[in-house]
From TrEMBL:
One of its GO terms (molecular function) is catalytic activity, acting on a protein. Gene3D superfamilies: Cupin. PROSITE patterns: JMJC. InterPro entries: Cupin_8, JmjC_dom, JMJD6_ArgDemeth/LysHydrox. It comes from Grantiella picta. Belongs to the JMJD6 family. This is 2-oxoglutarate and iron-dependent oxygenase JMJD4. One of its GO terms (biological process) is positive regulation of translational termination. Residues 143-302 form the JmjC domain. It comes from the Eukaryota. Keywords: Iron, Metal-binding, Oxidoreductase.
Amino acid sequence: MDRATFACSTAFFRDSGNSCPAARSLPGAHVDFIDKVDSFTYSDFFRDYLIPNHPCIFSAKFTEDWGSRRNWVTWDGKPNFEHLLQKFGDAVVPVANCDVKEYNSNPKEQLPFKEFVKYWKEYIRNGYRSSRGCLYLKDWHLSRAFPEHDVYTTPVYFSSDWLNEYWDAVAVDDYRFVYMGPKGSWTPFHADVFRSYSWSANICGRKKWLLYPAGQEEFLKDCHGNLPFDVTAPSLRDRKVYPRYGQSQPPVEIVQEAGEIVFVPSGWHHQVYNLEDTISINHNWVNGCNVAVMWCFLQDELAAVQREINQWKDPMDDWHLQCQLIMKSCTGIDYKEFYNFLKVIAENRISVLEKGLDEESSAQNNSRAAISTLGMLHAVFDLERTGKVLSSLSANEDFRKLDLSSLSPPPEALLHHLKAAIDTALL
């Protein structure tokens, strides 16, 4: 990040205070296509897409050196089933049935990868029909299961990735996925986990995206406040069921070709179709540009839980703790883990600002390597963003009602250390 971009982005967030960033529509529903690798910098992406929260498409030139694009695809652009079976045949993978609705999603089962590929081949031979329905391999943690394979390299534009930095540090989970599905497989209407950013690269095949800018989803809720399963369903035109549908903007529509990467902004709801037999690589990620959105999302989720079980508030001694447990079971995180998430991000950058970067430690640590690539000013920006959200969390009434004695260091001490590191770095 250069100094001009740092100054501009810092001023932008100072003006916004501690409130949730306002939803911003996309003028003219235009989506920029980024064609040239050499002339498009990280600062360009940060300034023009991350901060304003606008989508864009990266050309296939940005992925042409990936191992998956060389080896997972046949000469005519189809999935290379034989190569995939040779490399991953014994893996067990999560598979969704696109023909079945379960709540607001599709039911999943675990299948041997070789069984899924056998099904996929038969599905193609039968004219894309099967008594088993349309199956879609989704959310496969391939990078975690096969770290030694040359599959892809995360583009620098997406390298400030706090979600995977944190979950790598605690060695519990990650948000790096592979998707594989036949023509006609799809993903119902949703927003990504924690209202994160996402990027999705097609290894082969084509996708159609329908995206709604953050805030537009409010017009798509039914009379009970529920979002639709399928945003293209004719029932949305029934004003008795969806009273505000007529106020919604048309979706931003993208057709993504093989090799291209789609950047999905934070909080944008979307629905995705595979127009051909398709393989894609997807990451969810949060950083200093949208961590406030994540924090607002968590507050909204907790408030929803509290409303749901409010009738048991008086007779339940540990009501506030139970609300946290329910929220974590639904979203994957509670307030205390969110503190630990902010702590890991902050301490990694404090360490860099205080001790500097040496090449050996950077090469061995993905987070330090990313900080090294993006520079010290980016580390300062990250700390400023972390500090704002940490201050808000520390003052939050629901957070303060929890037993915080296990948090080390205490929030006040971490905030003091964080601010001192920023002051020293900017001298």
